[in-house]
Design goal:
- This protein folds into 2 domains: 51 residues, no CATH class; 84 residues, no CATH class.
- It is 44% helix and 23% strand.
- Strands 5-6-7-8-9 form a 5-stranded antiparallel sheet. A two-stranded antiparallel sheet has the order 1-2. A two-stranded antiparallel ribbon has the order 3-4.
- Helix 4 runs parallel beside helix 6.
- The longest helix is centred in the middle third of the chain and has 32 residues.
- It is elongated.
Length: 189
């Protein structure tokens, strides 16, 4: 089924499906023209999934995927078992991180966190809303979002979201000036 790669530059303007496929594959076609032009009942998506599978690469405790060769059934079973282990480890880390987070929240913050995965922090009369996997928000007097702040550690650390939320809370409460200096801000209202 697979043929030698065809550079995108050698395609004619009369082959829009080939051009699209080539762009999708980073400028290289790696399947035959018959498959691309769909001479049979095979759909483009099925063809893509038959020719390419995502091969896992483990970086620290995070599994990332890149394009790789088709894997054997044995390789697939091994990969799935590794993924299961990584996911279990991540779940355990998140549970520990949430326990730590809850230990520093007051009762109202705990209730809000458990129900909505967010809580509010009052710093020098200003109300900040901290939400799981979202920007920190500065609220106005009516509770509407006034400014959003993007502040988080380098994503290569693969920290549980609860650890990031706790860090945001502690930095805001201990040094609001540093928080505001570090964070990228976006005016909302």
């Amino acid at each position: 089924m697979a043929t030698m790669p065809t550079p995108l530059s050698s395609m004619t303007s009369n082959a829009p499906s080939q051009a699209t496929w080539g762009i999708w594959n980073g400028g290289m076609l790696t399947v035959s023209t018959q498959i691309i032009t769909m001479g049979s009942n095979v759909t483009l998506w099925q063809t893509w999934n038959n020719v390419y599978t995502l091969a896992p690469t483990t970086l620290g405790n995070v599994v990332s995927y890149g394009y790789g060769s088709v894997e054997s059934e044995e390789e697939r079973v091994v990969r799935l078992e590794k993924e299961k282990i990584v996911l279990q480890e991540m779940k355990e880390k998140e549970e520990r991180a949430e326990k730590i987070l809850l230990s520093v929240l007051d009762e109202k913050q705990k209730e809000t966190w458990k129900a909505e995965k967010r809580f509010e922090v009052v710093v020098k009369g200003k109300i900040y809303r901290i939400k799981k996997r979202e920007r920190v928000q500065l609220l106005d007097e009516k509770g509407k979002v006034k400014t959003a702040y993007c502040i988080h550690p380098d994503s290569s650390h693969a920290l549980p979201s609860e650890d990031i939320v706790l860090t945001q809370k502690l930095l805001l409460e201990s040094d609001e000036e540093a928080f505001l200096k570090i964070a990228n801000s976006y005016q909302v209202a």
